[in-house]
Amino acid sequence: MKSGIIFAMLSSLVFSVMNALVKAVSFSIPSIEVVFFRSIIGTIMIYCMMRQSKVAFSTEGIPALTLRGILGALYMITYFYTLSKIPLVDAIILVNLSPVFVMILATIFLKEKLSKRTIFLLPIVFFGAMLTIKPFNFSSYSTDALFGVLSALLSAGAAIAIRHLSKKHHTYEIIFYFMATATLVSIPLMWNNFVAPSSLEYVYLTCIGVVSLLGQVFLTKAFTHENAVVVEVIRYIGIVFNAMWGFLFWAEVPDTLTVLGGMLIIGACIALSWKKKSSK
């Protein structure tokens, strides 16, 4: 098996562990507080990496870097909230809508054209999302699931910003603005509802910060050693890992509509990815 494929699978496994840790600690710690600890740990670690690699802060492009930071911060807040409120695999399926939003936003802001096949597949993805969200049930679950869709949209916005910023800014600097902004945004939001973590919860929160960075390292290595489209497709194995953790630790069993909706979303996104590859 190629090393790039192994790294892609490892990144999916590591990120699924992070998701499970977030869900576990969110039963007693507010999700916004989890965002704070995840962000401040990430900020310290990425700053140390910048110092070690002698990456200097830019004096230009600050507004764009700040916008990327805000989008990333809001993405993390809505993502962690979704993880804390609905079954693990359901949340991951909804977050995997982000490639579709990337294509739509790229058309609007980067003037990239949508192919006929993409236009055909988008309604399939939308229908799959509706099956997963279940808007016809009018329950709190449906409302919480909408935050998963919002996190996918914010993730796509952050991805578009990264694509623009990566031409002039170092990856470490872009990540630093993301982590630092998320830290600053989360402080006032958690101020009145702060819950002092126990010793075990501090361990969980620290692990979330470290594990997420490890997952990012594996993902970067995957993109270095393998075709980007192949990596993106292989990352869908993360849904299986998350479903496994959800079943083992919380006895979460996806219902028929969630499974069907997930299959439609995954299948359409894979088709969109392969279409992109064939057009190069």
UniProtKB/TrEMBL annotation:
Which InterPro entries does the UniProt record give?
EamA_dom (IPR000620), EmrE-like (IPR037185)
The EamA domain covers 3-132, 146-273
Task: List locations, semicolon-separated.
Answer: Membrane
Q: Could you tell me the membrane topology recorded for this protein? A: Multi-pass membrane protein
Q: Membrane-crossing residues?
A: 34-50, 62-82, 88-110, 117-133, 145-162, 174-191, 203-221, 233-251, 257-274
Look up keyword Electron transport and say if it applies. no
Q: Which UniProt keywords apply?
A: Membrane, Transmembrane, Transmembrane helix
Query: Which Pfam families does this UniProt record tie to the protein?
Result: EamA
The family line of this record is: Belongs to the EamA transporter family.
Q: What is this protein called?
A: DMT family transporter
